[in-house]
Amino acid sequence: QVQLVESGGGLVQAGGSLRLSCAASGRTFKSYAMGWFRQAPGKDREFVATTSWTGGNTYYARYADSVKGRFTISRDNAKNTVSLQMNSLKAEDTALYYCTAGQLARATPDEYDYWGQGTQVTVSS
Fold first, then answer.
1. Residues 56-87: pLDDT tens digits?
2. How many CB atoms lie within 10 A of CB 70?
3. What is the rounded CA–CA span in Å between residue 98 and residue 20?
4. Per-residue confidence (pLDDT) for residue 52, from 0 to 100
């Protein structure tokens, strides 16, 4: 069982930055792929980014096209945390952001087993 708690959301102006963090419980954190999804009102849950540990100091990361070059996902296996640095934010990035854990670093929500409660990000234009 993995419990996930997100933090770092808030209100920011377009062009600004926010850093989301997710703290995970459990002893096997490094074996999980960790992802971020988001959901805006009236829309489906959308993939943002995912990362998995591939051994040593190497990690795999994948991003949605809509955030590539603006967002960076990172993880600290020693602290059981995963972060999402969001730069050059746009109004269309406004959503509830979820941290998630699963076996494989995929872009579909069905691949993930555990979800946090979400943290709200609002970007004003």
1. 889 999 999 999 999 999 999 999 999 999 99
2. 15
3. 10
4. 96
Rounded CA-CA distance 21/5 in Å is 8
In this structure, what token pair is assigned to residue 60?
């795999």
CA gap 64, 53 in Å, rounded: 19
User: Do 4 and 114 meet the contact criterion of CB atoms below 8 Å apart?
Assistant: yes
What are 83's two structure tokens? 């972060």
| 33 φ, ψ (degrees, to nearest 5) | -75, 135
Measured CA to CA, the distance from residue 84 to residue 74 in angstroms comes to 7
Cβ(23)–Cβ(84) below 8 Å: no
Q: Which residue has the higher pLDDT, 13 or 57?
A: 13
